[in-house]
Amino acid sequence: QVQLQESGPGLVKPSQTLSLTCTVFGGSITTINYYLHWMRQPPGKGLEWIGYMRYTGSPLYSPSFSSRTSISRDTSKNQITLQLTSVSPEDTAVYYCAEWGSGWGQGTLVTVSS
To answer: How many C-beta atoms surround the C-beta of residue 68 within 10 A?
Structure first.
C-alpha cells in the first residue's frame, strides 16, 4: 500500500521561503504515469492546486504560483520538495501531496507569521 507523507516546518516568517517534502512509501516516484501533486487549503477556503512533478522528473506549475514555486525531486530518497518563495500570511494553509491513484498525505499545516 502506497503512503505519502508531508514534512517540513510548521512556522515560516513572512518573506522567507517555505520548503516542504513529500516522501512516498511503498511505491516509486519514477513509476510510469506517476504524477505527484502539491495542493493547499487555506483556512476557510477551498483547495488550491500548486503543481506537480511528473515521473519523468519535469514539473508543471499552476499559473497562480509559477512565479515563486519550485518543485524538485530526489529519486534516491523517493521524495519531492516544494519551495514557495516570498511567503506572506496569505500562504498559511494545510499543504498536501497527492497521487491520484495512490491517495493523499495527511497534510501539514504551515503558518506564516512573524
So the answer is: 14
Distance between CA 88 and CA 13 in Å, rounded?
A: 8
Q: What span, in angstroms and rounded, lies between the C-alpha atoms of 21 and 5? A: 8
> Cell numbers 517540513 correspond to what residue?
8
31-76 pLDDT, tens digit per residue, is: 989 999 999 999 999 999 999 999 999 999 999 999 999 999 999 9
Contact 95, 6 (CB under 8 A): yes
Q: What would the grid cell of residue 104 be?
A: 493523499
State how far the alpha carbon of 49 is from the alpha carbons of 4, 41, 52, in Å. 17, 9, 9
